[in-house]
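Lab channel / #folding
Pinned by the channel admin:
"Please post every new chain as: sequence first, then the structure tokens as a reply. Keep commentary short and put observations after the output so the thread stays searchable."

First post following the new format, from NK:
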Amino acid sequence: MYEIPELDTETFTRSSAIRIYPSEAFEGMREAGRLVAEALDMIAPHVVPGITTQEIDDRIRDFTTERGGLPACLGYKGYMKTTCTSINHVVCHGIPGDRVLKEGDIVNIDHTVIVDGWHGDSSRMYAIGEINPRSRKLIDVTYESLALGLAQVKPGNTFGDIGFAIQRHVEAARMSVVRDFCGHGIGRLFHDSPNVLHYGRKGEGAVLKPGMFFTIEPMVNIGKPHVKVLSDGWTAVTRDKSLSAQCEHTVGVTEDGVEVFTASPAGLFRPN
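Reply from TO:
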């Protein structure tokens, strides 16, 4: 059984100020981002009808630890799994277990690793066998919205520019952006300032500066944006039981744009 390590939680604490990391920190983030992306690449051929979400979790945990990484979610605030596996109308934080994936399901797998103290956080959608056109459109719109958000990441732009680009695209497709959850600062801490909203107005919010690290992770519902958290304290679902999708990258602001730390080495980030 995997033993949860004790992590240093005193050296790094969340601050209301947005942390600016030096240029040498980018290499640490690249290593963490590469490992989480490799783990999500590895699991892709296994995410098929008949597999349980616990099997997915076990495979990703073993892959991560065998390569020297630590699963950041395991033991975090009492959460006892390596990943979150969110199926169909589950928006986020679905807990792996004995649920068997079946033809037509869609599932988000969210994984975070720690490598030498640096965090890499990413999630992707996986289609289980043949999915219907509505599910495919939802996934496409979600990935397109992330790409549009990423295009706004450069010095001098604002966090509101990111949120506006995502919201405009999603709502033009007659879908909705979840407002109860957001992206976050990351680096030496799993969750740091700022909160990165996936909706907003151009020019509002903090100005982006080189050395900022954060996640962009839009959650998109086919129906209304409202969610509720189930009695387990983790699993968030759509109130109207409509399908939901999410995708996530960890990024850093560079001198002239953005570096995506969690890009897929195998080119598998966006499902076909």
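NK: The chain has four helices and 15 strands.
TO: also worth noting, Confidence is low (pLDDT under 50) at residues 4-10.
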